[in-house]
């Protein structure tokens, strides 16, 4: 096969669609090689600065040299070094040292690989949450606007996906919002619970740093504190093995998986409502729904959210298994798995939030279709009100119940066997038994009288 040019070669290798097709540039960069290795260099700088401030023989010139080369990364050299050394951290130590010859001797002083690896992961996870939280808040805001707009529009409720008591379009949306608000709280908590691994050494005992500072425990503790603050964290984990506990990854991906479940439920509801032609997601003027059926308006955004949400929900199994099989202070079978699942979880969450925002900003409601469906089912739902009205007019409850039962079955047969409309009310109007309440039938069938406190609940939610 002929050699490919750089542009063609980019299409000759697999690229994750999470980045190449869907994710935001910001989240893509957060998990990029440049962000990762740039953070490693900053962590080496923080360590050197803190060690210098506590009395180790590190010069201003060495610090300045490191500062000047934080983003001057020779990725080709690093790749060649890693191929030679079979160790990614030492490959980047050598690459950094190459452009910082004066500081070469003190780069990574006293540290282990997890000093840069795990601490960078914690920084990236924190910043990933910081990217997701405003997007989630925006989705909640857009849906709140939608709920307010349709707070009073009656719609048929469904339990078991069978017709049930009426609710309103806005009240149903509040069910979605409530779940997302729980997710917002969970993501904020998970972000705020993150701590820094800090400066802990090879097995978490800080032995190498205690040796550097000649047994001065106070200086070791202060070193840990200084580096933690420089990295933007208020607290470090008090104890670690070589790594921070992999239970942290379980907590992080659990809240993202829960967010995925919420979005899957919301978008499934939208897909079902699209089939009923009651609500649709945005559909562009030139958008094609099907290559074979030009009339189709498929809910492809909601389908994409459901598809990716399923992937997000399964990713939490990875850190669960990893945490359970970490032997003693650490085993390396966590590494390759974490490279995949942590990034994919945040990228996927980013994608489905962005897509749901797009959906929520352009939802289309068809009130006449909604009303027609209500009228198909409302006569059956109104039978109890009709019975009570007849009793108030002097009728016998049991006689009325039997009359209604017979007429309801006749009307149901027309709907199910003949494909006709529900004619129960017409049958009641034609039956002289119900003449005492014929004048009340319109008010008894007013759909807003069947929605309970749905409208008020929407407004209570807005006030909260």
UniProtKB/TrEMBL annotation:
Q: Which reaction does it catalyse?
A: N(6)-(1,2-dicarboxyethyl)-AMP = fumarate + AMP; (2S)-2-[5-amino-1-(5-phospho-beta-D-ribosyl)imidazole-4-carboxamido]succinate = 5-amino-1-(5-phospho-beta-D-ribosyl)imidazole-4-carboxamide + fumarate
Q: What domain of life?
A: Eukaryota
| GO MF, one annotated term | (S)-2-(5-amino-1-(5-phospho-D-ribosyl)imidazole-4-carboxamido) succinate lyase (fumarate-forming) activity
Q: Which GO terms describe its cellular component?
A: cytosol
User: Per the UniProt record, which EC number(s) apply here?
Assistant: 4.3.2.2
Record has Ribonucleoprotein as a keyword:
no
Q: What Pfam families does the entry give?
A: ADSL_C, Lyase_1
Q: In which pathway does it act?
A: Purine metabolism; IMP biosynthesis via de novo pathway; 5-amino-1-(5-phospho-D-ribosyl)imidazole-4-carboxamide from 5-amino-1-(5-phospho-D-ribosyl)imidazole-4-carboxylate: step 2/2; Purine metabolism; AMP biosynthesis via de novo pathway; AMP from IMP: step 2/2
The family database entries (NCBIfam families) matched by this protein are listed as: purB
- How the protein assembles, per its UniProt entry? Homotetramer. Residues from neighboring subunits contribute catalytic and substrate-binding residues to each active site.
What is the role of this chain?
A: Catalyzes two non-sequential steps in de novo AMP synthesis: converts (S)-2-(5-amino-1-(5-phospho-D-ribosyl)imidazole-4-carboxamido)succinate (SAICAR) to fumarate plus 5-amino-1-(5-phospho-D-ribosyl)imidazole-4-carboxamide, and thereby also contributes to de novo IMP synthesis, and converts succinyladenosine monophosphate (SAMP) to AMP and fumarate.
Return the protein name.
Adenylosuccinate lyase
Its taxonomic path starts at: Eukaryota, Metazoa, Chordata, Craniata, Vertebrata
